[in-house]
């Protein structure tokens, strides 16, 4: 898969795939392949390789995996079968990318996570800049693909539990605490979390509420809501636990309850709390605060800038993708009714 703008929907499919076997190998396509078949990706292939490797259910990543999965590919990596969501991906020529392995009965499906897709995240990023509101690419459900944008993500305690590691600190563990928005979870976030995890044994990430993020980031943010951001962070292998709706200012009560040994913050600017106070005054006074450089300059703002810079290309990509997926869904339903597990070539004018 492409795994562009890696989100919790991708992570959820990998969680389900891992549950079907013992060792999960994930193939990630090159920029060239994605551009040819879908349009330009937002993240580079190097960024996408790194992001997928950091998802906690992934054991191995195959870089530059072929766009059409073949039996030779499965055999080369000693894979018994491959897994994909219950949507359909196609080549630029309208061919089901999994038709070979489906015909050989070496294909399994997992449930696609409704209410999230790269298409919608790109659209939300564009529209948040346009009018200050995070919204989907289109509000007309009849014009949308049945696999993207037809529903809103509904967070449940079950979903959060599925993503949670269920770990608790062991006696003697050094506990690290960080907090932030972690909006559109990206390689900058990832490198920061990897850096701070090296400073301890148990990493707790506090996720600020939507109103708090809106206050210090501006009216266009957050692009993803609190629960979506929680799942994105929980999927990261460096994260042990999250605090949902963490207070913006780190308090004595928070530090004592979580038994925090060190509080870290990245090299980005720290905005004052609503009353003008330093949100890290308490850990600073205890001598347990440290600024940690991630070595990565990527920010959520820079991702949005990338999308806006290539806006016309992304909009064309998304329109073409919607057309192909609507046609594929119709063919998919017909194939199921006929008892077939593959569909014929899709031609879209």
From TrEMBL:
SUPFAM superfamilies: Nucleotidylyl transferase. Its EC number is 2.7.7.14. GO terms for cellular component: cytoplasm. It is an enzyme of class 2 (transferase). GO terms for biological process: phosphatidylethanolamine biosynthetic process. Pathway: Lipid metabolism; Phospholipid metabolism; phosphatidylethanolamine biosynthesis; phosphatidylethanolamine from ethanolamine: step 2/3. CDD domains: CCT, ECT. GO terms for molecular function: ethanolamine-phosphate cytidylyltransferase activity. Belongs to the cytidylyltransferase family. This is ethanolamine-phosphate cytidylyltransferase. The lineage of its organism: Eukaryota, Metazoa, Ecdysozoa, Arthropoda, Crustacea.
């Amino acid at each position: 898969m492409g795994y562009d703008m890696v989100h919790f929907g991708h992570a959820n499919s990998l969680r389900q795939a891992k549950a079907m076997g013992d060792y999960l190998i994930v193939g990630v396509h090159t920029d060239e392949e994605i551009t040819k078949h879908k349009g330009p990706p937002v993240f580079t292939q190097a960024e996408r390789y790194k992001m997928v490797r950091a998802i906690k259910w992934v054991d191995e990543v195959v870089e530059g995996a072929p766009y059409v999965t073949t039996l030779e590919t499965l055999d080369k990596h000693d894979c018994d079968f491959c897994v994909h969501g219950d949507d359909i991906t196609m080549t630029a020529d309208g061919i089901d990318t999994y038709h070979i392995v489906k015909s050989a009965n070496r294909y399994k499906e997992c449930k696609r996570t409704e209410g999230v897709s790269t298409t919608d995240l790109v659209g939300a990023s564009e529209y948040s800049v346009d009018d200050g509101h995070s919204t989907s690419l289109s509000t007309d459900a009849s014009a949308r693909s049945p696999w993207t944008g037809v529903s809103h993500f509904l967070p449940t305690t079950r979903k959060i539990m599925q993503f949670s590691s269920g770990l608790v600190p062991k006696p003697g563990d050094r506990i690290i605490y960080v907090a932030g928005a972690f909006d559109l979870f990206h390689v900058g976030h990832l490198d920061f979390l990897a850096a701070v995890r090296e400073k301890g044994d148990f990493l707790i990430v506090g996720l600020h509420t939507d109103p708090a993020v809106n206050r210090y980031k501006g009216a266009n943010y957050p692009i993803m809501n609190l629960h979506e951001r929680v799942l994105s962070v929980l999927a990261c292998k460096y994260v042990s636990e999250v605090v949902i709706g963490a207070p913006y200012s780190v308090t004595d009560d928070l530090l004592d309850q979580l038994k925090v040994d060190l509080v870290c913050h990245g090299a980005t600017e720290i905005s004052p709390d609503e009353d003008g106070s330093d949100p890290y005054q308490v850990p600073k006074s205890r001598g347990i605060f440290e600024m940690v450089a991630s070595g990565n300059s990527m920010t959520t703002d820079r991702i949005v800038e990338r999308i806006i810079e290539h806006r016309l290309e992304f909009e064309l990509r998304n329109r073409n993708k919607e057309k192909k997926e609507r046609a594929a869904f119709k063919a998919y339903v017909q194939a199921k009714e006929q008892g077939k597990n593959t569909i014929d070539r899709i031609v879209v004018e």
